[in-house]
Give the backbone structure.
Amino acid sequence: MGSFRREKDEEEDGPTNAYQNLEKTSVLQETRTFNETPVNARKCIHILTKILYLINQGEVLVPREATDCFFAMTKLFQSKDVVLRRMVYLGIKELSSIAEDVIIVTSSLTKDMTGKEDLYRAAAIRALCSITDNTMLQAVERYMKQCIVDKNAAVSCAALVSSLRLAYTAGDVVKRWANEAQEALNSDNVMVQYHALGLLYHIRKSDRLAVSKLVNKLTRNAMKSPYAVCMLIRIACKLIEEEDIPAEELADSPLYTFIESCLRHKSEMVIYEAAHAIVNLKNTNPRMLSPAFSILQLFCGSPKATMRFAAVRTLNKVAMTHPAAVTTCNLDLEGLITDQNRSVATLAITTLLKTGAESSVERLMKQISTFVAEISDEFKVVVVQAICALCTKYPRKHTVLMNFLSGMLREEGGLEYKTSIVDTIITIIEENVDAKESGLSHLCEFIEDCEHVSLAVRILHLLGKEGPFAVTPSKYIRFIYNRVILESPVVRAAAVTAMAQFGASCPALLSNILVLLGRCQMDPDDEVRDRATYYLNILNTAKPELYKNYIIERENCSLALLEKALSEHLHGDLQTHFDISVVPKAAIVKPEINNDVMLVTSSAPRAPKITREEESAARLAQLPGIQVLGPIHRSTPPIQLTESETEYTVQCIKHIFGRHVVFQFDCVNTLSDQFLENVRVELTLPEGFTQCAVIPCLKLPYNELQTTFVIVEFPQEVCFSTATFGATLRFAVKDCDPNTGEPDSDEGYDDEYMLEDLEITVADQIQKTKKTNFQVAWDAADSEEWLQAEDTFVLSAVNNLQDAVNTIIKILGLGAANLSEKVPEGTHLHTLHCSGTFRGGVEVLVRAKLALSEGVTLNLTVRSTDQEVAELITAAIG
Amino acid sequence: MGMLHNLADLIKVKKDKMTILVLGLNNSGKSTIVNHFKKSSEQVAIMVPTVGFLVEQFYTNNVSINAIDMSGATRYRNLWEHQFKNCQGIMYVIDSSDRMRFVVVKDELELVLQHPDVSNRTVPILFYGNKSDLEDSLSNVKIAAALGLEKIKEKPWHICSSNAISGEGLDEGVQWLVQQIRFAVLSNRYGAKITKHHK
């Protein structure tokens, strides 16, 4: 009803948009007017405006339409009307990506760009750069160089920014303009200086030495433009992060001294940027932080809302990393709670929540609830995140927080907001046993009235996992079965699965579940019916071991690799049975954390989430002879085999197969005057390993990433499979011209380059799995086929249980079950359960009992289907 | 009647701008010719190959002329036809020393003449036998014969040899072209009047 009224209001008030009811075809018809002589400027401007409006509203022109329109537009160059000409430039820019043959206006634009009319020049440069391709760039290069150093600031800026855009497609040509950009850097105009620095930095970005030279030079003689100084601070920060200078040395480093000196700059923007940079640095100590925090504190009291917002937002971001320092600003933050700007107030409260004491939680929550309805979703998410952090910190406060969250769940909100609330509740349930019951019941209520399918499915899955082990599992059945009656097929299918979990885990409820599942067999949707039939059949067998394998612990293989393995199986010998255990398990892909200290991030869309194994499988499939190795077991994260600033950089990824290992070496040649050929890595193999093939990389030009492979077979005995390899990079060098990259002559000489040693560890060969119910699996493994190895160690290097647990998981590469990787505080005894799959599909279960006395005593029990593997794992700890 | 013509001539046509199209193969000297007509303050010292087209304006023989200087490079020749519709005259520049490419010149000329936007109208065509200062340049008569200009019946045409660098012969040609365009405009108007009377 509310939304209804609003629509009506919109219709009534305000002048209507003159361009609202435009139609594409009729507007395109009107472009015929452009052909009239003499040109009617006023009319044409109007038509061009319509076209631009349409394009910006998302109307799509097909290439044919765009080309016609573009050609008609070229006629308008005959008019001298200034406004019309500038509209034409805009039109060219919009159509340049769709229309064909756009380069025909090159000469016309070049004329305007070098002409006397200043009004044309900047816009012409921008239009020109949008239509130029690589081949045409040579022709306009001379003019671009002139314009970069033009004394008119607008022209110079336009040229610099356009060059920056061109640099993404034609980096080599733009590189030659560095001298002009350098000259523009000395300009008096603030914007020119800023853009020149941007271009220079982009040109030298890949060469760390050149960047640090640039920064060193610029930090010594102060720049006029505050924008440029801000940019310089960001570059300096990036350098500091890359070099990873420890805190003690950082204080004396010239880069840091520069940033620190910017705290006393006269421009507020620069001061803020410097403070923001310092608090976000990785290696800092309290002494370095305090001036930055006092600046932020000062800004908190600023009369300008933007300054307050910036300061509070920064404090909020770093509240978890530097809680002690943020606490010093608490008094100022308290003052901002009642700020008239809601965004500032929200951030202030959430910051306080993150850092505040347990006693103040309730007061702050009450304060938030007064205005939570008024703030936008984006800030509500910030509030939810703060609550999430709070729950981990003060588990005892969960009732207050949980009630608050459930209140928020009931309110209106977008998917992202709701997802963050559900995430938080799930985190609380996982971390805090006491909160489980109340959390689950809140979620049950939520799915009763939830419009987001993805969330409903997630919650149903969680109910299936956690519900059976609650005090009264039966009360969840009603909620779940309601979904079966009321929801869409996707949700119904999830609900059926959840019910089956109850049937498998709670014998008391089994008979009821069977009745309900029987009803689901009448469902109109195929998937729901199939699932119901599947579960019904398994539950009817009354064999608990089947429940375990097919309902409770479903194997979640990586689907892409499973498909590949199956299709290979179909093409191969059909006499043998398909073995699902060799297919790698789907690993949980963690989203990458983006470091946004440097705001100049690449605009490339984020690649879809795939596991490392799937990525490398696609890549390795192209190698000759790779098929015989079978499906890939796991790929390790890359390790650097060289220092980061050497002539050649090499990193290695190990791909483990059933009986082989494929070493992938990613090589980069950082010498611009060398062209490498036949690049390969020579390994010195330890005893037992045999080399199967070396796949060299034929050409390695400057600054390109190319790959070479070595395939090695593991020894027969598993116990010799951990080893160290010496590695040498061998190649033929040809000298070449740094500008063109073409070799000077055909003659080259052989050379070699020592790499760091490589290791294959136990962890490399194990793919971690996550058992949701470890105890069941462990007990089931107490049978004939399973073998056991046991040993006791004293770990003297570690002195607390958490460190010991972390070390064990790291050495063995196993996945911990039932949250046993977290050691509760204040205990002296802990049991770690973990599991994984060894290459070749051998399952491994490990129970590690730890006791803290002087040092940590460890009793390790390994159960595996292969004796050698079990022994290898016990040996790995010792 | 003749008096009236002259009067109309004085009042109307001079106010109008003329749009002419400058065509020809690459490196025949089109941009250089246009450059010569421009005011000395606007002239460019270095000529570079035109990409696409350029619109230049100059004043000569009491008319302001809008010259659309098209690129002659092979890949841009298909753009010529886009401009046929709204031009009143064509200036076709030939490199008189480049005998090898006379065949190409002829082909391109035929394509222009066959285009519906040109063949159905009376468009005067001025040919410049450019680079006449070079030793191996051909004379007007020989060029006309090589290109088969005598076959052009329904359009007024004229050929004169020129040297775009010194400016020799250029003014003579343009004078002719301007005259022809004026004449064409008037006869169109006159024709329109007659048809009106008939009705």
